[in-house]
Structure formats: C-alpha cells, structure tokens
C-alpha cells in the first residue's frame, strides 16, 4: 500500500482518482460537484487564487481512498481545504486516517496551520460517517450549511406568480462575461458578499475580488465547460444594488447551481433578492430543455435567504458541516 500524488499531468492516474471521488459523491441522493474535465482543468492549470492537487492511497491497481486538496494562494494562505473519500468496502480500516496524516504533513511543510473540510450529513441531525470521522480525528465543527434543492423547470404560471419587479431598479443580465460597464461594481459586490455571508466560526478571510480576478474566474469557467447566468438590479443613480448567479456545466447537465445572491445593505428589505432571482430563472429556463436539479447551500441562521428559497419551492436534503483542525 502506498500514497501517490495526483496533479493532473498523468491522465490515467487522474481518472482513477476522480472516479473514486465521484463514486463516493454519488452515494448521496442529490450528488453535486464538478465533472472529470472540469476537475482536470483545476489540477492542470495555473490559477492565481488556488492550487489544486490530491493524494491517493493505492494497493497495486486498487484505489482505497483519495484526498482532494485546495491550497489558497492569495487569501487564506494559512489553510488547506481537504476532501477525503474512501471506497465503501475499505471504510473503518484506517484509510481515511492514513490519508489525513499524509495531508497534515504536506500542509505543515507548506507552512499552513489549519486543515479545513466539510462533511455531508442527514438533513435533520447533520450527522454521518464524515462527521464521526472528523470528530474522532480532532476536527472542531465551525459552521453549518443547509443543502436545499429545487426541481426545474418551474412552470410559466409559477414564475409569473413569483415575479414581483421592484420599482426604481433596472434589471440587467449577462452570461459568461460581466459587461465592462458593470465590471468594477460587480467585483465590489462579490467582495462585499464574501464579507457578509455567514461563515460561523470558520477561521477564513473574506476574498478581495478585483476586476482582473473576475476576468480570470470567467476565463477559467469557460475553459472548464461551465456556464453561468447573472442578473443584477441597478438603482436610478447607477449603483449595482443586487446580483444573483446560477450556472452549471455541460458535463452534468442535470446539476445546476444557485450560487451567490447578494443585496447591498442599504438596499435590503425591498424584496430585491426575489426581484433578481426570478428573471435569472427565466433566462436559465429559456435554455433548459431537460429536467434538472438546482442546488444551493445556505447557513440556517441566514433566515432571509432560506425564507426566499422556501418560497421558491426549495426543500432541504442534507446538512453540510464545516470543520477545522489546527495543526
Ligand atoms: C469519512 C471517511 C473519509 C472516513 O474514512 P475511513 O477510512 O472509514 O476512516 P478511518 O477508518 O480512518 O476511521 C477513523 C475513526 O473515525 C471514526 N469513524 C469513521 N467512520 C465512522 C462511522 N461510520 N461511524 C462512527 N465513527 C466513525 C472512528 O472513530 C474511526 O476509528 P475506529 O474505526 O477505530 O473506531 C469515509 O467514511 C468516507 O469516505 N465517507 C464519505 C465521504 C465523506 O464523508 N468524507 C468526509 C469529508 S472530508
């Protein structure tokens, strides 16, 4: 048995690594996450914000478990994000622990002081093998997100019912690239979102989005075969007051994601969240020719966001808990 490193240059190794990770994700009733090619782009590319690589524990040709590692390069340079996945038949034999030890060693060598990871669990209790493992290995639970799903498409009548434009705001939409005119304000809004979004006790810094970083993220998304729909609301003075983003990838067309929804503090309380979401649904559904599941994650303490989602018809399917281990 040995630990191998996975960096994407050897495609055959990468495919074994990915297949195991994806098989474990598919155990969930509503699996989410990147496809093979999307992941490979992360493992092979140079990205200023993140380096991504992994480890596998293998016995001959058999892969017992993997660790997927995200190394933040700009903010959060004290953290390594780790996802562990152990093949079902090898669980409770120490595979996860062995991979974790190897990850901790790499992280220390790189000068990182914190391992951070998420575990999916039951929608009500949040508990699972992942949470039991994290607790047994000394991780501390720092944050909870509720995973909600909504089956699409919504009917035209339902969208009409939900559609409540807010007077005094113009709705603007775009696809893969933020128009130059809105780029700077959009970058500011993305940064403000990372400050405001509830992250519990997590020892994570907010992200500073520059216009260059937005463009780099857009280019990366295109390279990965992903697509996005953005809707913003702009007030009479030309201030970008709210935005929402949804998207997915050609590789997994039945998995769609509701990413950020953000309303600037001075514009809150006017139902702008819904006012940007509904036109975004319309844009997305105009190109949707098959049923799909829309996924979203929000802190249960973020009651306004959860309430908007419940009103839209989202239902809870799991809890994702975030854990940290000081090295
Ligand atoms: C979580 C996971 C990685 C654990 O891997 P593993 O190889 O089974 O873990 P180990 O054998 O090293 O277990 C170490 C300890 O964790 C605890 N533990 C692990 N699984 C457990 C379970 N199902 N129930 C209770 N305790 C558990 C135990 O204390 C165990 O020690 P013990 O077997 O001596 O009692 C594996 O169950 C898995 O892949 N689950 C699905 C994906 C996931 O949840 N990943 C975690 C996200 S980072």
UniProtKB/TrEMBL annotation:
The N-acetyltransferase domain, residue ranges: 4-188
Entry-linked InterPro entries: Acyl_CoA_acyltransferase, GNAT_dom
Pfam families tied to this protein: Acetyltransf_1
CDD domains, A to Z: NAT_SF
The name this protein goes by in its record: GNAT family N-acetyltransferase
């Amino acid at each position: 048995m040995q630990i191998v490193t996975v960096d994407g240059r050897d495609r055959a190794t990468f495919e074994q690594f990915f297949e195991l990770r994806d098989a474990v994700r598919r155990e969930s009733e509503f699996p989410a996450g990147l496809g093979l090619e999307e992941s490979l782009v992360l493992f092979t590319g140079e990205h200023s914000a993140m380096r991504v690589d992994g480890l596998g524990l293998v016995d001959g040709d058999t892969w017992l478990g993997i660790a997927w590692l995200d190394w933040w390069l700009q903010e959060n340079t004290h953290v390594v994000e780790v996802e562990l996945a152990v093949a079902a038949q090898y669980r409770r034999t120490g595979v996860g622990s062995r991979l974790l030890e190897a990850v901790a060693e790499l992280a220390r060598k790189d000068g990182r002081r914190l391992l951070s990871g998420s575990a999916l669990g039951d929608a009500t209790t949040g508990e699972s093998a992942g949470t039991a493992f994290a607790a047994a290995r000394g991780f501390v639970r720092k944050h909870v997100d509720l995973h909600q799903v909504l089956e699409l498409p919504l009917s035209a009548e339902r969208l009409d019912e939900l559609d409540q434009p807010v007077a005094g705001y113009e709705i603007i939409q775009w696809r893969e690239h933020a128009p130059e005119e809105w780029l700077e304000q959009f970058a500011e809004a993305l940064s403000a979102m990372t400050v405001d979004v509830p992250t519990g006790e997590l020892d994570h810094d907010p992200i500073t989005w520059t216009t260059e970083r937005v463009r780099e993220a857009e280019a990366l998304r295109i390279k990965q075969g992903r697509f996005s729909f953005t809707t913003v609301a702009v007030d009479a003075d030309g201030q970008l007051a709210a935005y929402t983003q949804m998207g997915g990838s050609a590789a997994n067309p039945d998995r769609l994601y509701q990413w950020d929804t953000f309303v600037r503090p001075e514009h809150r309380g006017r139902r702008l969240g819904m006012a940007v979401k509904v036109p975004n649904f319309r844009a997305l559904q105009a190109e949707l020719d098959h049923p799909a599941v829309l996924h979203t994650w929000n802190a249960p303490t973020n009651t306004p966001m959860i309430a908007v989602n419940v009103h839209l018809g989202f239902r809870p399917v799991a809890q994702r808990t975030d854990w940290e281990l000081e090295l």
